[in-house]
Amino acid sequence: MLEARLQTGALLKKVLEAIKELITDANFDCSDNGIALQAMDNSHVALVALLLRHDGFEPYRCDRSLALGVNLVSLSKVLRCAGNDDIITLKADDTGDVLSLTFENTDNDRISEYELKLMDIDSEHLGIPETAYDAIVQMSSNEFARICRDLQVLSDSVQIDVTKEGVKFAAKGELGSGSVTLKQNSNVDKEEDSTTIELNQNVSLNFSLKYLINFTKATALSGRVSLSMSSEVPLLVEYKMESGYIRYYLAPKIGEDV
Amino acid sequence: MLEARLQTGALLKKVLEAIKELITDANFDCSDNGIALQAMDNSHVALVALLLRHDGFEPYRCDRSLALGVNLVSLSKVLRCAGNDDIITLKADDTGDVLSLTFENTDNDRISEYELKLMDIDSEHLGIPETAYDAIVQMSSNEFARICRDLQVLSDSVQIDVTKEGVKFAAKGELGSGSVTLKQNSNVDKEEDSTTIELNQNVSLNFSLKYLINFTKATALSGRVSLSMSSEVPLLVEYKMESGYIRYYLAPKIGEDV
Amino acid sequence: MLEARLQTGALLKKVLEAIKELITDANFDCSDNGIALQAMDNSHVALVALLLRHDGFEPYRCDRSLALGVNLVSLSKVLRCAGNDDIITLKADDTGDVLSLTFENTDNDRISEYELKLMDIDSEHLGIPETAYDAIVQMSSNEFARICRDLQVLSDSVQIDVTKEGVKFAAKGELGSGSVTLKQNSNVDKEEDSTTIELNQNVSLNFSLKYLINFTKATALSGRVSLSMSSEVPLLVEYKMESGYIRYYLAPKIGEDV
Amino acid sequence: YPRKACAVSILERIRKGPNGKPTSEFLLVKRPEKGLLAGMWEFPTVEQSQLRADHNQPDTPSTYKQRSESSQRYLVNKFKFDWIKTCKDIQRRDLGSVQHLFSHIRKVYHAEWVLVVDGDGVGNVGRDEGKKNKKAAGEGLEVEWLTAAELGTAAIPTGINKTFQLLQKYKARAGNDVDESSSGRKRKKLEVPEDVAMKAKKVKKEDGLADISKFFKPSAK
Amino acid sequence: YPRKACAVSILERIRKGPNGKPTSEFLLVKRPEKGLLAGMWEFPTVEQSQLRADHNQPDTPSTYKQRSESSQRYLVNKFKFDWIKTCKDIQRRDLGSVQHLFSHIRKVYHAEWVLVVDGDGVGNVGRDEGKKNKKAAGEGLEVEWLTAAELGTAAIPTGINKTFQLLQKYKARAGNDVDESSSGRKRKKLEVPEDVAMKAKKVKKEDGLADISKFFKPSAK
Amino acid sequence: YPRKACAVSILERIRKGPNGKPTSEFLLVKRPEKGLLAGMWEFPTVEQSQLRADHNQPDTPSTYKQRSESSQRYLVNKFKFDWIKTCKDIQRRDLGSVQHLFSHIRKVYHAEWVLVVDGDGVGNVGRDEGKKNKKAAGEGLEVEWLTAAELGTAAIPTGINKTFQLLQKYKARAGNDVDESSSGRKRKKLEVPEDVAMKAKKVKKEDGLADISKFFKPSAK
Question: What range(s) does the Proliferating cell nuclear antigen PCNA C-terminal domain occupy (chains A, B, C) (predicted)?
């Protein structure tokens, strides 16, 4: 049996917005550690891993592991019925036919109760090895979203080059070419806007912009994003939350020079 | 001859927005009491009754009763040309071929004058008997609009249950089910958000959400809405204005259990 | 060789928004006087003349006249990648294959560099004679935009009548008729909202609203607009900027009485 | 209020229905998709301007004979109902007139009842050829033969409904149901409940939605 | 977890490929566009409810013989494969079963291998008549004969992939490649690398995009 | 500025117009929908690269003879105008050249006038077969025979207009209207007012909208 109460419903709403474009159906794997989800997108090009740790809920109770098969579009529709300040409680019993959602608004004594039908979902769990990445860039999540959106004007692909001076995003297409360079810095006015780089080795990798733009739907979850890269290994784009994270993995594009 | 001057044009703009989706053409019945309109929507499922009392205008003059047949879409297009702070004057003479609208903006010496062609409209006036309703719910109009919009995710119909504890709106569909309950309360922070219930008898009735959502286009006209219900009698949804009201009537849905 | 640095990128973004709907491709004629553009719209009904004077840039350098053939839609796409506060530098060398754009954001050490491919464009330069207009109306650019948008509800054409009392915009169509009159005034609260008229002779001319509405895309460039009119001569609609202008010319409509 | 007159002909045919029993059907014509009463259905109607043109009478009111002639001409020209000119089996009655008040004009509907008792003989305009009829109707007019029950659910302007009530009153006054005499089947009334038959429905409703006018009765204004 | 069984028949035919060499092809059927595993491809599969209905056994588990009969009936009825009833050239093997755990049920796939060695004789269901086949498949089912290599790039549910692994293990255990005996051509393995063959791809990717599951291996949950 | 040359052939035929009078028509070809001067109409034009390829001359300027040969080859290949090779009724004139300055190149248009006096003999490319012609034009090129008046309202690039002015000057210089000699009808000028004929209109205007270039004359830059 699952019972998980979240003080700010907005968090769950944003989480769903961050994954529902990539994944249609997925299992929420509930255990005493929290609620996790791992799924490939429909085209098997990207992998999403979500963790909402138990300590983000109050109370959190899950006696026995439970996989809740959910259509994410439906769940996000129901969550749009929750106010941003509503307290959200998730419940499911072990028979697992429905997920109950309760939205409470203390201001005006409103209680909303929804029951979402669950589905059987063919689940395949991929093991993600610990990787020592060659380059890890930490930057403003808004800046990252903006760069991806801007370069999309020129091309479907972006080349990311990381050196110790900075990170450069470049694209080339029919209209012409463009690049955005962020210098490593730590003394900008707002710390959230700073760009920091951990580097073992320079990297130069090519990624699908369409997928990166999809990942940036998580921008609302965190002011910061980290990009972890090594040659011939999937890029890890991570948004950290107070009690959990959302991680996206995307393999570099092959056989294309920008 | 009609001459009616309205200090805040925004009111008339909002009134048109509140009815133009339901009704295409209607007669504005002008008399010394004010301007009234009564019409069924095209599918004859809902009835709209509007009253703008004479004391809402300054000056108001109507020597002789006059029915002005207006295409409401056209009128709302013309009213969109009025600023929210414009003073609006309506005029029509007894020959009744056109409705004249004057919009005055004192700030920058702008005067707009429009003439809208009138139409002959087949008018049928329904008598609405005084009814002692079993349950009357008064609540925030925004809350009502939000509940209708939210539940629409699940179904085309909503079941409204009123007891002395509160009012419950419930819907059930393919995705699952949901309900929103508002407790009767009067000591919420903002009085406008309170929910009050006058009850002779519990009611449980089923309505088309599509129509209710259409009624909530009047939300801008009043912070409060009242829902008056009895079994097998049309629901009355009323938005009161300072000098008048807009009332919507909708019969319960038949033969459907939610 | 051209090098032109603009402190506020927003200006260039707005300029492109103001012309890209009317003109697809055009030559930017760069000389030591600044950057100019003159082009007819595709249907040869309107003429656009843009001037960005050299003193609006710092530094500005252009050794030798240069015609840069640009697809304006592409340029406006690239400019949308510039922040409003970015410093924009335009560069082109005499071979003229590409236009380089650099966007600098000092806040967070971001530098974006774009290269836009140039085109050969068949250029035909029209000579615009100095004209002593019969009537020149200066008015709020927002008010002008609003009037054009409002009257579009009624008709494709607007008749502009200027007398010493004021300027009247009138339209007539199937729904009915309408007019907006602005009195000449100078003592309104905000000077920017005032309407002033220089008049040699009353004029009454008829113009295509579709084109006028297109011209009002320049509203963001200036709070004021001037309309210069004489009979049987194209209307001049001018938006003045600090260091330059954008001028639109449109011939009166023939054979139509409003 | 200015007054405008028109001539309405209620063309009724009686033929074997799908269950083998004789059934009355009425000819309805669809109004244009634009303008007043757009897309609603009415009995074939000749407007005042046409009536005047037909008889060179700019001002004087029309007579029943004139209206009857105009109506027949209209049916022949618009729907190629040439049989109507020669058919022996036709009964015609002047039903009198009703009025309907629009906001600025008072419209007078002069109604005529045109009954074809042996409607099977009017074979080539049967419902089965519905599609052909629609094409035949040169000016893009759609026509449909409806039973009284179907009339009750069709979108019909109030004024036209009033002419149908005239017919029902006439039949009641006549004391004998005309259907009966021709078909040998006894019916006290037309089979359509008056309140339903008289109510126009313009569009198809969602399932389960009731007509609001079942709850509120028309009032004198 | 509740348990549900189904009968999967892996129908393999061997015929001359485009290069003249004998090629194995497997019959795949497309799942409906809605529901679980929508639009993915699977070997012909008879679900538990049908198995029970075929043999009037509401509760007891099915036998291999029963499943084999049901599968054959299914192939004949759905795809008009009447030749399967008379063809002498068919070998059938029980491959055993595999399980796949969905979130709330445990599904058991009983697999049977049906090999038509002289697949050219099965001419009228060849790939060339692909379109005709699709029509023939009365209930709108799409069918396709795929090589093992093509299987590797098709969108195939995990459970069905596991049955194909059963077949590969069986062939390996049997110690001799069946293709070999019939074609005289020596092959140690099926020509499709296992990791590729076993991976379902649901939709066409952009050029240059790699499958993320090439980087991360399935883990025991 | 770099210089590019091309060969323009103004193919004119004279035939009986709809009013029975002899009418001159000119062959126009539509440019592709993409690229510079997209969708505008021009006289058949052979570009420099083709001229060089036709005569194996990478660098040297072309002669009139070479351009004339290339143009004829172009007309035969693109439009199947095989009659042009054998027709006795053709007059050809070198009209000289005009230049047009684009932003980065200077384009030289060498113009040739090809006149078919008895244009009715060129029956199978008549306007009546317009549609057939369009198909015949293998590479999707649209062609159209336009009168001088129609040329005045067609969307024609400035450079091509200049070649038409060359023709008009030539005819004026020649002192006799060629049309006249062949048709016996006296005309001092081509019937199209020069300012209208020379102005390209790319798209259909709203009614009542005047061309802005009627008000502002082209200026030397």
Answer: 127-253
What CA–CA distance (Å, rounded) separates B143 from B193? 8
Using the predicted structure, report yes or no on whether residue A40 has a pLDDT greater than 60: yes
Whose tokens are 């006290």? That residue is D188
- Residues of E within 8 A of A96 (CB-CB) are 103-104
Q: Compute the radius of gyration of chain A from its Cα atoms.
A: 20
pLDDT per position as a tens digit, A104-115? 987 777 899 999
Select from B178, B182, B183 the Cβ nearest to the Cβ of A113.
Answer: B178
Beta strand extents in F131-199 (DSSP E only):
143-146
Q: What gap in Å lies between CA F213 and CA F195, rounded to an integer?
A: 10
Contacts of D200 in chain B (CB under 8 A): 44
Maximum mean pLDDT: which of A100-109, C156-165, E12-21: C156-165
Taking one residue from B and the other from C, the number of pairs with CB-CB distance under 8 angstroms is 62
Which residues of chain C lie closer than 8 angstroms to B102, CB-CB? none
DSSP strands (E only) in chain A: 2-6, 25-31, 34-40, 46-53, 60-62, 66-71, 87-92, 98-105, 110-117, 126-127, 135-140, 157-162, 166-172, 176-183, 196-199, 203-208, 224-229, 235-241, 244-250
For the ranges D5-19, D205-219, F121-135, F154-168, the lowest mean pLDDT is seen at: F121-135
Residue F123: pLDDT band (50, 70, 90) is very low
CB atoms D103 and B120 under 8 Å: yes
What pLDDT, in 10s, does the model give residues D143-163?
888 888 777 767 777 788 888
- Confidence (pTM): 0.63
ipTM, two decimals, is 0.56
Cβ separation A188–C113 shorter than 8 A = no
Q: Please judge whether A254 and E37 are an interchain contact, meaning their C-beta atoms are less than 8 angstroms apart.
A: no
**Range name among C50-59, C113-122, D205-214, F80-89 with the lowest pLDDT average:** D205-214
Contacts of E36 in chain A (CB under 8 A): 119-122
Kindly report the backbone phi and psi dihedral angles of residue B7, in degrees, each rounded to the nearest multiple of 5, phi listed first: -65, -40
Interface contacts (C, F; CB < 8 Å): 105
Nearest to E26 by CA among E107, E135, E145: E145
B121:D103 CB<8 A: yes
